[in-house]
Amino acid sequence: MVMGSLRQEAEIVVIGAGPGGYVAAIRAADLGREVVLVDERPQPGGACLLEGCIPSKALIHAVEVASLAREAKRIGLDFAAPGVDLARLRTFVSGVVSGLSSGVQTLLKKRGVEYVQGRARFDGPHSLAIEGAASAGIDFRHAIIATGSRARRLALAGELPVWGSAEALALPEVPHRLVVIGGGYIGLELGLVYAGLGAEVTLVEFSPRFLPGADPDLVEIMVRSASKRLHRVLVDSRVAGVERRAGGYALRVEHGGAQETLEAEQVLAAVGRDPATAGLGLESLGLAPDSRGFLHVDEMGRTRVPGIWALGDVTPGPMLAHKASREAKVVAEAISGHKSAFDNRAIPAVVYTDPELAWAGLTEQEARTQGRAVKVGAFPLRALGRARTLDRTDGLVKVLADPSSGLVLGVGIVGPHASEMIAEGVLALELGATLEDLLVTIHPHPTLSEAILEAAEVAAGQAVHVLPGASQGARA
Amino acid sequence: MYTLKLPDLGEGIHEGEIVQWHVGEGQQVEQDAPLVDVLTDKATVTIPSPVKGRLVRLGGKPGDIVKVGQVLAELDTGAAEQPAAQPAAPPAPRASATTPPAAAPAPARTGPIPAAPATRRLARELGLDLSQVQGTGPGGRVTPEDLETFQSKEGRTGEEFLKGEAGGQEAGLATGQAAQRVTASGPASPESNRPAQSQPSPEQVLAASSSPSMNPSSSGSFLFSPELLPDYAQQGPVEKEPLRGVRRLTARRMVTAATLVPHVAHFDEADVSSLEALRQRHKARLSAQGGPPLSLLPFVVQAVTRALRAHPKLNASVDLGREEIVLKKFYHLGVAVASPRGLVVPVIRDAERRSPLELAAEIDRLARAAREDKLEAQELRGGTFTITNIGPIGGLAATPIVNYPEVAILALGRAQDRPVVRDGQVVVRRILPLVLSFDHRLIDGADAARFVNAVVHMLEEPEQLLLGG
Ligand SMILES: Cc1cc2nc3c(=O)[nH]c(=O)nc-3n(C[C@H](O)[C@H](O)[C@H](O)COP(=O)(O)OP(=O)(O)OC[C@H]3O[C@@H](n4cnc5c(N)ncnc54)[C@H](O)[C@@H]3O)c2cc1C
User: Fold this and answer.
1) I need a labelling partner for A215 at 20 to 30 A (CA). Which of A42, A253, B226, B407 fits?
2) Are A143 and A291 in a shared domain?
3) A285, A311, A335 — which closes off a domain?
4) Taking CB atoms and an 8 Å cut-off, how many pairs form between chains A and B?
5) Contact B141/A at CB under 8 A
């Protein structure tokens, strides 16, 4: 033993206390394992809780309330233009974050999971060195790598202090003009937040369309609404240079052959995230990530090296908290000798724009590229009672089914609360439900969830609320 | 790439044991040339190669059991890849265990097999491959009941599950080792992971032992005893050999018959003195003419066949599944004989159409083929009643187990001269002990007695037997 340091032993060590790591730790502890959880941050929660899902959704809520207040005019309610007190808004957001994080801390403590703050690095097949902690190292039998992902830096910006998503979520100020580079879900969400807080936001996206994984007709409805709130939306556009200007930045943007210069007080780079596998000492395990930095695992979460498991954003697949948490449970169960496997049929994708966009399972465009025949039932919110009462008719629900068996293959939703509604579609996919299962399930009235029922009816050719031959009929 | 699966060989055969490969891995094989010998419940079948190509993967080595529908071989036909029967699955984040491998000609289903998460977990725990299970739910959804049905039908073991498991576990584990591998590949293995506690915790042991592959009784295979045997190696030196081939098949079929059939044994004896005299008179002459050796057996076969025609229930089968009694109007008599691989029961087809001499010739031919291990599958199938002749080896009598799904079996003891009382005098007569074991579900004691009486009567009155009176 080295002087002044303390080596520990652990049956399982989990590296990273995000929604992957902390869930794995809790589940494993519940299954009787002895667990140590390591994270370089002082409190658990990872990217999601501390600088991702949670703070962003708190801000999105605030902006939505403001927007409701502004739009209430239409239904006969007059509010003064909402003013934003950034300090109190920050307090609200950080209160949500710290409340949840200390909740996680309590959960860990109650299970006897030890939290070690420090940066972990493998220095042998069964040992970790921990920097910046009382613990000098941990000898483990199993290690779960749940180190998540890090925001990709915009190379063009060099050392310039442009924002990443974490900086933007800290809400240092509301710039007069903000250019958001990257039209993925993070760029869209944060762009709309700042627009809602009063910034003049320009969104620059490299590809010709937003969210290429989702069906274009759904994306279009969302983008049409979002565009009204944004100053400008530039697709098919490349940021070719970023320069510092007095009081802000000048960005050179190429669009087709043309060039233009955008000026802004602040720039937010939301250009993707990379798995956090560098600097982990994986070479001392004989484990190499792929060219993009991902660790490949089997359906139990095992890497190629016995005793080394990985989950969440460091593994391939969508970088989403709910994927990480599900994988976490599988890994904890598999380590404990249970026959568990990640055999999920759908990982829902949700974009918290206004309106929200959510989809799960097969999309119409995937079906087309696969040459696969599907029945599609689409139902516009404009025909739905509840959407009318909310004065929100900007939306569409789509259900895809197998034409012969009627099995539900995919669900896509754009509209208010799409994030909540998609869960029914995911359940249908997991259960192997058929259109009929959806049809005979009584959906409460009046709710937005009825749109799923209606779309299923359209797909089954039994729609009550659609005129025969209407444009949104079933398409084969 | 051509994937050859063990074809359905008919007659309820659902698995086979690989006996030998005619072609080695990497070797070229012509279409229809012998590829592999597979031993089934009934016989060894030579499976020809359905295509011309290079054998790139063997589905098992000699001694391995292959189920019908399981991959037996993969042949590289040199042709361009067959277009996939279905569009590629949507880019899933990872391969799921239930997705059939791309090489296998998948059933006409696209995408993952519909089944609820709880059902999928159950399948995993039972070691079942969902893609093999017929779903009866709406849209072909697999239900927990479907898994049950499938399991009881297939008599699955955890073996295939381990073989099919992703993540680099070695394939082809023998059943007995499978259980150990579960723990070895699991977390608690002391040798796969160095430090800290070197012993698995009790919970880990518990978790492992409650997993289905540790508990063969849940596997549904008749071969497994409900409890694990004690470790005899602790008591003294032991030698182990795999339970394979005819021995394995016999073990399984005996367990079926013995557990399913309520057996009753009926004892009697026949005075075969006249028959013996007749036999002795003709035996030498026949063999001098190059004819078959004339034993008592052909006469017994003749007598039994006649008696069966008069007592059709003894030539029947009980189909509990359909709640039917199947009365067979043909008489294929099985005769148990020894072969190098163990006891086999070749069948004399249409015994009622053959004279004792023809029967003698046929019995001789079949016994010879059995000894030389040359019986055809056809010659081992379709029996309706079995005779087992243990007499020549020794013993007074035996109570055999019926050759299920036949309903009766006749054991012949050793014919010997014994003092018996005739007309108040003690005389020496040649006595043949007979034991009929029968399936009491269908046959009552009186039926059996009447049947055996008829057999005895014919054996005691050879004229009647030969003249068909
Ligand atoms: C702005 C934003 C919004 C998002 N919104 C959503 C959303 O709405 N819904 C959704 O599902 N997902 C959302 N995500 C994605 C989500 O945050 C991630 O998918 C999720 O956090 C991944 O969880 P994880 O456990 O794999 O890793 P992380 O949450 O990234 O946690 C990894 C942890 O590991 C620690 N760590 C890394 N390396 C080391 C080391 N060497 N030693 C010690 N500790 C280490 C880090 O400090 C971190 O705490 C959002 C992300 C961002 C950035």
Assistant:
1) A253
2) yes
3) A335
4) 127
5) yes
Least confident of A27-41, A251-265, A460-474: A460-474
Asked if the structure places residue A340 within a domain, the reply is no
Interval A353-410: pLDDT, tens:
999 999 999 999 999 998 999 999 999 999 999 999 999 999 999 999 999 999 999 9
What is the average pLDDT value for chain B, to the nearest integer? 77
CA-based nearest residue in chain A for residue B115? A432
Count how many residues are written for chain B.
469
Q: How many domains does chain A have?
A: 3
Structure ipTM: 0.77
Do A264 and A171 lie in one domain? The reply is yes
Phi and psi of B164, rounded to 5°?
Answer: -85, -10
| Centroid of ligand 1 to alpha carbon of A9 (angstroms) | 26
CA dihedral B164, B166, B168, B170 (to 10 degrees): -10
Q: What is the H or E stretch that residue B182 is in? A: helix B175-185
- Residue pLDDT, tens place only, A151-166: 999 999 999 999 999 9
Select from B143, B169, B193 the residue whose CB has the most chain A CBs within 10 Å, as the one to mutate to test that interface. Answer: B193
- Of ligand 1's listed atoms, the one at least distance from the Cα of A328 is 25
Ligand 1 pocket by Cβ (under 6 Å): A 15-21, 38-41, 46-48, 52-53, 56, 119-120, 146-149, 165, 186, 276, 280, 312-313, 319-322, 324
Residue linked to tokens 């039908």 = B153
The CATH number of the domain holding residue A362 is 3.30.390.30
pLDDT at A248: 95
Residue A142 lies in a domain: yes
Q: B144 at the A interface (CB within 8 A)?
A: no
Q: Which domain holds residue A440?
A: 349-471
Per-residue pLDDT tens digits for B118-145 = 899 889 888 888 888 989 988 889 998 8
Q: Is A296 an annotated catalytic residue? A: no
* Nearest-CA distance A369 → chain B (Å): 9
Q: Which residues of A43-64 are buried (b: 16+ CB within 10 A; e: fewer)?
A: bbbbbbbbbbbbbbbbbbebbb
Supply the residue whose CA is at minimum distance from atom 6 of ligand 1. A53
Average pLDDT of span B237-254 = 83
Chain B contacts of A126, Cβ < 8 Å? 193-195
Residue in chain B lying closest to A316 (CA): B93
Is B131 within 8 Å of chain A by CB? no
At B173, the pLDDT band (50, 70, 90 cuts) reads very low
Amino acid type, A313: D
Residue A222 is predicted with a pLDDT of: 96
Burial of A198 (0-12, 13-18, 19+ CB in 10 A): middle
**A114 found inside a domain:** yes
Give me the phi and psi of B56, to 5 degrees please: -100, -20
Out of A313, A335, A357, pick the residue that ends a domain: A335
In this structure, are A357 and A331 located in the same domain?
A: no
Nearest residue of chain B to residue A372 (CA atoms): B87
CA distance linking residue A449 with residue A427, whole number of Å: 14
In terms of DSSP bridges, do strands B333-335 and B385-389 run parallel, antiparallel, or are they unpaired? parallel
Tell me, yes or no, if the pTM score tops 0.80. Answer: no
Residue A407 is nearest to which of B114, B166, B197, comparing CB atoms? B114
Is residue A1, in this structure, part of any structural domain at all? no
